[in-house]
């Protein structure tokens, strides 16, 4: 598990390290400059001539440290200070004085074509408004640069909280960020502007209790070790899933969800679907079936299913008709087991939020942003301006684990910890991916994880499977079904 912070949180962590732990600001800065120096060398960029653009704040001061280190190591380096002297922080003034003592080259103007690497140390997490005027022109000119661009902490112009572009932004090949990844480096469009992100330890420390809430975290491959199979387990110990999915003309969603659940380790699966799909399940004999006919009332059979199952899933491909509504009502009124609600079932939740809140067990909702927007009347644009906070607030209001699916999926149970997912790629933006995710989350729930854990691990695994499938098949050609086999391989590897 790794922590991610907003720029505001980072500034508090810097302050705590300096004021409470007693590490001088200049020491942190020296480590910051050194870590960028090392990252640039490691990347193997051509370092014939380097230009460092500095603002007047401490991001600029990091840039001057870097210039000194490069100069001392014998690299031809120019520094151009774009910020006004009257705005220099005391650290920036100090670094300029030190730099002058070491004889580094300060230039007043430059031609970008003379350089092989340009370092952006104009603004860091202190950027507080849109970039305009002369600075904007310079940043836009950098878009034409043919060499490599390295951003210090965050590309100038990217909002460190939302990833939004404030006026204009530097497009970096490499961003060396300090202490923790910043949300703005991972949310789009910031993620595209940051290029490769390297996180450098510079000695930031704060007692956990002073960390401003909500805390944001993400998973990496090692976290999948939590999905461990019991050596002496039997099919009962890996959980029983009742999945209500598919409808008269829709078979694929039920198949993909069910297959994803079984192939990520669930013990038993019963699929409740329309009778017409029965023949199609002949290629999936591992699944048991509970079939209904048009307008048939299967409340009794479903109740028995609720008794049998450890977890319940409803939604993929069930449609929006009367029968689908009645299935959802039966689940909400008679189900007692942990429940995953997806796709069409989310579309029918609008008048049923009280029932949702009263459900006697954990509920996980997995809307994509369109479904989220229709359910909450919050526009996608508004969500994107504050995805962390809005996801947390709605999760709390609805008393659910809310999985807002996007290129960067955000998950919250309304509590202080928010999950931001970094695995996955645009190859997953194709029909059926969401159905696969539902199956994976159900599987992890059935294997005993709580709602938040199952959602976060499931989303991480789903994205990691997407990354492996993209490597095997290519992002354009991969299909939702490819995620299922890839996930199996990933689980086996960890
Ligand atoms: N001692 C510290 O606090 C440390 C700071 N570090 C570096 O310092 C950065 C943060 O430094 P600062 O807080 O000084 O902030 P920045 O250097 O990011 O920029 C702040 C300055 O830019 C001005 N500004 C903001 N938006 C502007 C706009 N649109 N147009 C023109 N001017 C604008 C502000 O008024 C302020 O003067 C971090 O990103 C990191 O690179 C690191 O060296 C670690 C230690
Ligand atoms: N650009 C992307 N990068 C990473 N993941 C993505 C991207 N686009 C879509 N996804 C993921 O793919 C899944 C799509 O789900 P959904 O929209 O419900 O698909 P469907 O309804 O077709 O099954 C989500 O888990 C989402 O996070
Ligand atoms: K920067």
UniProtKB/TrEMBL annotation:
PROSITE patterns: YJEF_C_2, YJEF_C_3, YJEF_N. Binds 1 potassium ion per subunit. AMP binds at residues 405-409, 434. Pfam families: Carb_kinase, YjeF_N. InterPro entries: Carbohydrate_kinase_pred_CS, CARKD, Nnr, Ribokinase-like, YjeF_N_dom, YjeF_N_dom_sf. K(+) binds at residues 59, 120, 156. Residues 218-494 form the YjeF C-terminal domain. Belongs to the NnrD/CARKD family. In the C-terminal section; belongs to the NnrD/CARKD family. This is Bifunctional NAD(P)H-hydrate repair enzyme. It comes from Blautia hansenii DSM 20583. The gene is nnrD.
């Amino acid at each position: 598990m790794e922590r991610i912070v907003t720029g505001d949180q980072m500034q508090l962590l810097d302050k705590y390290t300096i004021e409470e732990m007693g590490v001088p600001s200049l020491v942190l800065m020296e480590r910051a400059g050194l870590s960028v120096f090392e990252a640039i060398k490691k990347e193997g960029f051509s370092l014939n001539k380097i230009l460092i653009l500095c603002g007047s704040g401490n991001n600029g001061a990091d840039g001057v440290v870097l210039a000194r280190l490069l100069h001392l190591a014998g690299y031809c380096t120019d520094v151009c200070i774009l910020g006004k002297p009257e705005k220099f922080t005391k650290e920036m003034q100090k670094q300029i004085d030190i730099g002058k003592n070491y004889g580094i080259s300060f230039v007043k103007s430059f031609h970008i074509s003379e350089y092989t690497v340009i370092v952006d140390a104009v603004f860091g997490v202190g950027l507080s408004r849109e970039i305009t005027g002369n600075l904007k022109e310079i940043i836009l000119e950098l878009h034409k640069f043919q060499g490599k661009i390295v951003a210090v902490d965050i590309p100038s112009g990217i909002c460190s909280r939302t990833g939004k572009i404030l006026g204009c932004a530097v497009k970096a090949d490499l961003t060396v960020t300090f202490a923790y990844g910043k949300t703005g480096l991972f949310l789009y469009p910031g993620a595209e502007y940051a290029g490769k992100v390297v996180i450098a330890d510079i000695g930031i420390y704060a007692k956990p209790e002073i960390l401003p809430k909500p805390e944001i975290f993400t998973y990496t491959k090692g976290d999948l070790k939590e999905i461990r199979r019991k050596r002496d387990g039997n099919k009962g110990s890996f959980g029983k899933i009742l999945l209500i999915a598919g409808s008269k003309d829709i078979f694929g969603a039920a198949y993909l969800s069910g297959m994803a659940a079984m192939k990520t380790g669930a013990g038993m699966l019963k699929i409740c679907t329309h009778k017409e799909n029965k023949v199609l399940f002949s290629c999936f004999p591992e699944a048991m079936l509970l079939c209904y006919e048009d307008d048939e009332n299967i409340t009794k059979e479903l109740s028995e299913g609720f008794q049998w199952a450890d977890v319940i899933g409803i939604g993929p491909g069930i449609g929006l008709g009367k029968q689908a509504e009645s299935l959802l009502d039966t689940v909400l009124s008679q189900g007692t087991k942990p429940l995953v609600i997806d796709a069409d079932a989310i579309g029918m939740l609008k008048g049923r939020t009280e029932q949702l809140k009263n459900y006697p067990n954990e509920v996980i909702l997995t809307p994509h942003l369109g479904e989220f927007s229709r359910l909450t009347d919050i526009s996608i644009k508004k969500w994107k301006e504050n995805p962390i906070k809005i996801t947390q607030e709605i999760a709390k209001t609805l008393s659910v684990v809310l999985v807002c699916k996007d290129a960067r999926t955000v998950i919250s149970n309304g509590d202080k910890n928010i999950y931001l997912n970094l695995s996955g790629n645009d190859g997953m933006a194709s029909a059926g991916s969401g159905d696969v995710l539902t199956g994976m989350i159900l599987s992890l729930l059935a294997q005993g994880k709580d709602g938040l854990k199952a959602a976060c691990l499931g989303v991480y695994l789903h994205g990691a499977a997407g990354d492996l499938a993209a490597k095997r098949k290519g992002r354009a050609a991969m299909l939702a079904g490819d995620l299922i086999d890839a996930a199996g391989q990933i689980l086996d590897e960890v």
